[in-house]
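Input record (one chain):
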Amino acid sequence: MAAFIEHVTIDGDRWDLIAWTYYGSASAIEGIIAANPHIRILGILPGGLVVRVPLPTETVPVLPPEALPPWKR
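The corresponding structure, as predicted from the sequence alone:
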């Protein structure tokens, strides 16, 4: 069983902001999205959702800079 933190969203939360908050990298969203198949992948999340955030490990996947959109580089 994977360990996780429950993050309750506020209006305006985004997947990348949650990743930044817990992992220090906005590009580490893949594990968070995979842990929450019940939540639609929206650009902006509504408030009150409970998002499971896998506990950070040394192997949190981080996208290389060239895979990020230009405004994130």
